[in-house]
# Entry
Amino acid sequence: MIRLSDRAWSPYLTGALIGLLQVPAFLLLGTALGASSSYVTVSASIAELFDPAIRGLAYAGKYLDGAKNWWQVALVGGIALGAFLSAGLSGTRRSGIAPVWTRALGTANPAVRFALAFAGGFLLLFGARLADGCTSGHGISGIAQLAVSGFVAVGAMFAGGIATAMMLRAVR
Amino acid sequence: MSVLAAIAVGLLMGVAFGFLLEKSRVFEPGVILGQMQLRNFLMLRIFLASVASGLIVLALGTLTGIVPKLDPKAVLYGAQLLGGFVTGVGIALAGACPGTVLAQVGVGYRDARLTLLGGLAGALTFAYLEPAIRPVLLTGSPGRLTLHGLLDLPFWPLALGFAALLIAALYALERWRPWRAELGERADGVLAERPETGPLPSGTAPAGR
# Structure
């Protein structure tokens, strides 16, 4: 029996339900789940306030307007709200920095963690835009469509992730 | 679909997505980092289950015609190998992916806000550099290649076969180590220290079993 107040649901159930989100994505938007292009939509929209010429760039320009782009921005924003609600129901709201970082980085200094979080986020999205997708777009959606690009990108993501994580301290 | 309707649909789907990411615990930096250190396999379980269910619904959808066509991304080997690798480095340092970082922000992790800002900066930097990168890495795509296309087979039998393989792999994974064993005391994927590993850095309390 699963309850909304449970801290954790089975990864098989939650994973399967996440896969089912492909149904509304394809039926209503004609596309698959993704997350990383919303970062271009948001950052380029903000940049346009200071640099209207960004609209003239072929790449940035195609992410500024339209239903699909803003659908994904809303999707990614909704993730924060959904996680907030779920954590509230199960009493797993968090604060500060996850304790795992003290273990993995060997220091409890928040400045180190904040700098690494920013750098990690930068590489995460720079890489994902270069690869044209992230763990959602290439991973969950690409492989579910048997896309060659998905297999290539996900293999490279795990290679980069494992190579880097192994240089940090063991988390257990 | 109008932009406003698309935003409403996206918000509803996003709330469901975020709820499931939180309930699955896959958004926890300890789970993501643990997966990349091959010490915790919760992320792989959720990932493979979501791929398997996606394969099944898309197989049924294309077979019945409810889903008129798939939307695979074009192949760009250089960009996907290099970009994927850089993404992976970012996943390990951030302890997050572009979607899960929002779940981390939602539950209250402070550093995730910096990850989010870094992500926006990274995406914007790419957008400005794209004209220079394009001739080097983003041209000469062989197209939207798919396994079924390469094998000249319909999508659905291959998709259902692959889904069956993934489900068998998940079954084996669960037999090897039950998923609840990977949650940890705080349900953050951080498991009790193994006896053979060294002392904890000061300021960390070892979590008891």
